[in-house]
């Protein structure tokens, strides 16, 4: 069932009306802006794929940064309290831009759109399209309808219409990609609105998942991350509770794939067969994101988190026994209703014992529509803030200590595009180690200038310097410094380990820019503007 509303535009005098005139020979440019988690980011790849299939082209990086496009899509999140503020702040900025750009269309999708529905158009009448989490496929049609009718179109499906992974997908990376193995969630955590907005869990068949991974690898990817709201409960929908471990092994065995990750598991569903699959499959990386949320058993019960702190710590112990170098990260909420100082002390105890390499820490914010929003004993904001600051200080200390322990280790880094904001100033490049730690690494002195001043040109040169890696290539270096949020590997400056391994992913990155890939492939191949667009994966025989 879906809700469809065609809303006449009641824009204020200084705001443009929805819809507009389009030149008949072009669809125009688009930009998709993502607010939220990896699932949202992957949904945005589907939105981009749909728009390109409909004939739109991506706006340039400069235009996208300034919201200068014929179609602007904001893919929203509803998990945190400030999600609405962020959305309407962006929409306010877009109103002024739209006044000076006749025919521009604005669409709002994602979790907040699913939640607020027509209320978005009521607050921002210059929005043309609102669509939900269950009907991503409707985006191009709704844009055309809004343009034709010169009024806003709001369409919210109440259940999943098309499995997102069957939609066209414009991948933002040619060397790494996300693959959804399920959508929705069957848990009933009292603080979380996701099940209400994304629905009950639906699992993809293993053959479909493997086909999508194979398609990514064929395009040059060397890393995939399996996604699900509760990724390790995969298989419940088709009656195989051991399916996730089997899937990890099967994905990890795909030829050409070098790194497999997954997020996010639920501690209550985390079983030893998954640990065995991680330990026994060389391509499954030694990293694990395991949400704690609270260290207090009393608060975990109030959250309806069906595990207790000792079970949580026991999982970490077993993971580290099987995978000694595993880096474990987590999520922690501070200030859940009724949290006492004793409860918070338990969280500090568990965090200290867990030794997370990093953690996403959140101040609790009530989300309308969740059971926790109506609980008594909401914790005063100043108390929550003070506890939050103590937790952050503890985790910063632990992260620093854990990263300092990495000094001297030799690691292989998958070079990324744009991970390090200070790379230009420090003359380093950045990427991720196998355990997913961010590594900023120095280049040998003779290639530093090439990697900073004109990096793209140099990395596309026919006579590519063998010491200059491209995004998607792998570099072996020694860690020389550990900081709270990253590692530094300057071994190349002192004659230490530094070895570049060219990969198919690096070749794909070069080809995506229409250049020689360093292996003799001719210049002049049509560029694909960076990302890879994939259609529906085919089922394996």
UniProtKB/TrEMBL annotation:
Annotated protein name in UniProt: tRNA-2-methylthio-N(6)-dimethylallyladenosine synthase
Domain TRAM: 404-493
Residue positions binding [4Fe-4S] cluster 1: 37, 77, 111
UniProt xrefs under SMART domains: Elp3
GO terms under cellular component: cytosol
Job description of the protein: Catalyzes the methylthiolation of N6-(dimethylallyl)adenosine (i(6)A), leading to the formation of 2-methylthio-N6-(dimethylallyl)adenosine (ms(2)i(6)A) at position 37 in tRNAs that read codons beginning with uridine.
Pfam families: Radical_SAM, UPF0004
Enzyme class: transferase
Organism the protein comes from: Actinotalea fermentans
Region (Disordered): 1-25, 509-541
């Amino acid at each position: 069932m879906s809700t469809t509303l065609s809303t006449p535009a009641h824009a204020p005098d200084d705001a443009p009306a929805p819809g507009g005139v389009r030149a008949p020979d072009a669809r125009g440019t688009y930009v998709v802006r993502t607010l939220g988690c990896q699932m949202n980011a992957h949904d945005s790849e589907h939105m981009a794929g749909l728009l390109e299939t409909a004939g739109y082209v991506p706006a340039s990086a400069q235009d996208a940064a300034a919201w200068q496009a014929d179609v602007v899509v904001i893919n929203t999140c509803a998990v945190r309290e400030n999600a609405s503020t962020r959305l309407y702040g962006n929409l306010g900025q877009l109103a002024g831009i739209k006044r000076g750009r006749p025919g521009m269309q604005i669409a709002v999708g994602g979790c907040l759109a699913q939640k607020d529905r027509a209320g978005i158009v009521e607050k921002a009448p210059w929005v043309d399209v609102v669509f939900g989490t269950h009907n991503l496929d409707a985006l191009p049609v709704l844009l055309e309808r809004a343009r034709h009718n010169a009024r806003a179109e709001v369409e919210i499906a109440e259940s999943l219409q098309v499995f997102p992974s069957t939609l066209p997908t414009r991948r933002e990376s040619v060397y790494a990609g996300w693959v959804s193995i399920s959508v929705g969630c069957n848990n009933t955590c009292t603080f979380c609105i996701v099940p209400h907005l994304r629905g009950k869990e639906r699992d993809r068949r293993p053959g479909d998942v493997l086909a999508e991974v194979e398609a990514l690898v064929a395009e040059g990817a060397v890393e995939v991350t399996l996604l699900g709201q509760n990724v390790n409960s995969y298989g419940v929908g088709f009656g195989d509770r051991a399916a996730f471990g089997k899937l990890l092994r099967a994905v990890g065995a795909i030829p050409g794939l070098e790194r497999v990750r997954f997020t996010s598991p639920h501690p209550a569903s985390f079983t030893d067969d998954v640990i065995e699959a991680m330990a026994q499959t060389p391509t499954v990386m030694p990293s694990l994101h395991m949400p704690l949320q609270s260290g207090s058993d009393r608060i975990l019960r109030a959250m309806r988190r069906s595990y207790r702190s000792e079970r949580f710590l026991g999982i970490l112990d077993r993971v580290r026994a099987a995978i000694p170098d595993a880096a474990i990260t987590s999520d922690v909420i501070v200030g859940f209703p009724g949290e006492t100082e004793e409860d918070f002390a338990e969280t500090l105890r568990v965090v200290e014992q867990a030794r997370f390499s990093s953690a996403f820490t959140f101040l609790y914010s009530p989300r309308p529509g969740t059971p926790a929003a109506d609980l008594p004993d909401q914790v005063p904001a100043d108390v929550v803030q003070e506890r939050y600051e103590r937790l952050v200080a503890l985790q910063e200390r632990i992260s620093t200590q854990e990263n300092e322990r990495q000094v001297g280790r030799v690691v292989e880094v998958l070079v990324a595009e744009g991970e390090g904001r200070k790379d230009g100033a420090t003359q380093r490049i950045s990427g991720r180690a196998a355990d997913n730690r961010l590594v900023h690494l120095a280049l040998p002195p003779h290639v530093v200038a090439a990697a900073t001043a004109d990096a793209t040109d140099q990395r596309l040169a026919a006579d590519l310097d063998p010491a200059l890696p491209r995004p998607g290539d792998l570099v072996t270096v020694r860690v020389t410094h550990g900081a709270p949020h990253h590692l530094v590997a300057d071994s190349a400056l002192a004659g230490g380990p530094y070895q570049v391994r060219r990969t198919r992913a690096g070749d794909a990155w070069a080809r995506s820019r229409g250049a020689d890939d360093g292996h003799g492939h001719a210049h002049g191949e049509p560029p694909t503007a960076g990302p890879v667009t994939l259609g529906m994966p085919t089922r394996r025989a």
